[in-house]
Amino acid sequence: MNAALFATRGLPEMPAGSDTTDMLRGASLACRFFSRVFHEAPGKDVLSALREQDLLSSWPLPGESPQARLGLDLLARSLEKETPSLIREDFTALFIGPVNPLRQWESTWTTEERLLFGEPTLAVRECYARLGMAVSGTVPEDHIALELEFLGELLQRAAQARENGEPAMAAAWMEEAETFFAGHLGRFAGSFLLELGRRAATDFYRGAALLFRATLDTLETIHPPSAGGAGT
């Protein structure tokens, strides 16, 4: 994977299902969806795709929690009423500025100095490199969009291994995902979302904050099987 967001992709198709493999695949797609949301303002094509896919009924993770339901409702309302330019203006105000933009990098949330290119940046870079993944360009590797894309890749590999009948490999990828989430994304995403929900001026980003919070709750429940249970 390379380029500013590892790879610029079309919107992923949303699967249905409830077993472990489908949960992993759904979590992967959710991570990649939010990676897109926090990397750039959605264009008319992305918003049209969301409308056509019927976000409310096709979201790939459980949507029963109050946060998930409200998040999906707000996003659906945004797709009906908010223009691409309004959402783009909110993205700019939130993440670019000119006044006090919301920090999107792990280093700026978890280090005492709150500066870019801190120790978490180097640690995340090593995680990417160890699995043969690299980021080109000037965006620090601990940007929330890049961490989400990476976590989505790990979860996708776990799902694919299960689908291929390789439980030990699936467990290894799940362990990689759990370790990365606990050591990086999970350390700052909650605080980031609280601030995002407070500042957002559109239903799109208010809904995204709530739905991402519900997604984090799901990610926290994904664990590799215990020893001897890799095939379950």
Précis, in short:
Helix 1 runs antiparallel to helix 8, helix 1 (20-39) runs antiparallel to helix 10 (203-219) and helix 4 packs antiparallel against helix 10 (203-219). It is built from ten helices and no strands. It has one domain (20-219): TorD-like (Orthogonal Bundle).
Write a concise keyword list for the protein shown above.
64% helix; 10 helices; disordered N terminus; 232 residues; disordered C terminus; TorD-like; mainly alpha
In total, the number of domains comes to 1
Largest sheet: none
Considering the protein shown, what is the CATH homologous superfamily?
A: TorD-like
Mean pLDDT: 87
At the first level of CATH, the class is: Mainly Alpha
* Helix content bin: 55-70%
Number of strands: 0
| Beta-strand fraction estimate | under 5%
Helix-strand makeup class: mainly alpha
3D structure, described in words:
The protein is mainly alpha-helical and 232 residues long. It has one domain (20-219): TorD-like, CATH 1.10.3480.10. The chain is 64% helix and 0% strand. The chain has helices spanning 20-39, 44-53, 55-58, 66-81, 84-96, 107-110, 119-130, 144-163, 167-199, 203-219. Helix 1 (20-39) packs antiparallel against helix 8 (144-163) and helix 4 packs antiparallel against helix 10. It is globular, with a radius of gyration of 17 Å. Residues 1-18 and 227-232 have low confidence and may be disordered.
Strand and helix layout:
Layout lengths: L19 H20 L4 H10 L1 H4 L7 H16 L2 H13 L10 H4 L8 H12 L13 H20 L3 H33 L3 H17 L13
